[in-house]
Structures are given as structure tokens and as C-alpha cells.
Amino acid sequence: MVSLLAAAIPNPQRNAPAALTEKIDLVLGIAAWAGTAAGVVGVLVTGIMMSVSIKQGTQASDHVGRLGMVFGGCVLVATAGPLVQFVFN
What we know:
Layout: H1 2-5, H2 18-56, H3 64-88
């Protein structure tokens, strides 16, 4: 009975065609670069909005939440690749 429960778990090997994996890697690489560029643009736009708010005499603290969301998005984009690689390897 114990030997039935301790049976080996199957671990199938990947058989994806090389052409398909190259195309998927290209698309994922472009998406990673686009996400990074969007994060940089988000930080720049938020900084500009904060400086304009200060110049107008309003509080720039209203934009701190937006900056936190931009940084959260940057962290998500930066960790997406390693997390997917960890799960599927």
C-alpha cells in the first residue's frame, strides 16, 4: 500500500519547436522593454506633475500615491520574467 502512494511523479520534457520559442522570447523581450519604458515615462510624468503643483502653490503630496503606483508597476514588470521562469522551470 505504501509503495503505491510513493510512486514516481511524471515529469514530461518540453518539446516546443525552436521557431516558436524564439518568437515567444522576442515578444516577451519587447513587452519587457515596453514595460520598462512605460515605468520611466510614468516616473518622469509624475515628477513633472509634482513640480508643476509646487509651482502653482498646491500640495505635491497628492501625487505621491500615483508615484507609488508607478513604482509598483515597475516592480511588477521587473519581477514578472523571473517569476514566470521560476514557475515553469
